[in-house]
Amino acid sequence: MDAIHTHADHPWLPERDIEVRLAELAARYPASILLELDNEGRAYLETALEGHQGDILWTDNGGGELTKMHWEVVLDHIGFAEIILWFDVPEDAGLVRAACADVERMKSN
Questions:
Q1: Disulfide: which of 64, 85, 87, 105 matches 31 by Cβ 3.0-4.6 Å?
Q2: Which of 84, 82, 102 shows the shortest CA–CA distance to 93?
């Protein structure tokens, strides 16, 4: 099973214009999902992703590095972070969709 990666694990990612960076990520990762998460949502999602098959990259909404400091600063200011999860195995995105559906069901009950 492959690992879940951070931006720092990929030195091939240049610090460029957001559109270029997103295009490069999209070329490497055929599936992605944009999410808004707080700490509780992130913990729930990390648990849901335990059964993943491929590489998963967590980035900010511009495809940039999602560091611990970035995460904490954004949460302190607005209460959630907008992130992108990138998947090299598109079926792994289904784990996220299922987790989101579970959360929606819990909220409606």
A1: 87
A2: 84
pLDDT tens figures, 43-73: 999 999 999 999 999 999 999 888 889 899 9
The pLDDT value recorded for residue 1 is 45
Token pair for residue 12?
Answer: 């091939």
Give the Cα separation of 84 and 59 in Å (integer).
5
What is the pLDDT at residue 15? 52
Cα angle at 39 between 37 and 44, to 5 degrees?
Answer: 80
Residues in the chain with pLDDT < 70? 1-16
Contact present, 83 and 66 (Cβ < 8 Å): yes
How many other CB atoms are there within 10 angstroms of residue 76's CB atom? Answer: 8
Q: List CB contacts of 7: < 8 A, sequence separation 6 or more.
A: 13, 57, 58, 59, 64, 65, 66, 67
Q: Which residue, 49, 44, 53, is CA-closest to 90?
A: 53
The DSSP bridge pattern shows strands 81-87 and 56-60 to be: antiparallel
